Amino acid sequence: MLYRPDQCRPDIFVCREGVFMDINHLTLLTDLYELTMMQGYFKTGNDETVVFDVFYRDNPSGSGYAITCGLDQVIDYIKNLSFSYDDIDYLRNQGIFDEDFLEYLAGYHFTGDIYAIAEGTVVFPREPLLKVKAPIMEAQLVETALLNIINHQSLIATKASRVVYAAGGSGVMEFGLRRAQGPDAGTYGARAAVIGGCDGTSNVLAGKCFDIPILGTHAHSWIMSFDDEYHAFRAYADLYPDSCTLLVDTYDTLRSGVPNAIRVFEELRAEGHMPKHYGIRLDSGDLAYLTKKARIMLDEAGFPDAVIAASGDLDENLITSLKSQGAPITSWGVGTKLITSADCPAFGGVYKLAASKPKGADEFTAKIKISENPAKITNPGNKTIYRIYGKEDGKIRGDLICLVGEHYDESDDLTIFDPQATWKKSTLAGGTYTMRELLVPIFIKGQCVYKSPSVMDIRSYCKDELNTLWDESRRLVNPQEVYVDLSMPLYKLKNELLDANHKK
Question: pTM of the predicted model, to two decimals?
Answer without folding.
Answer: 0.95
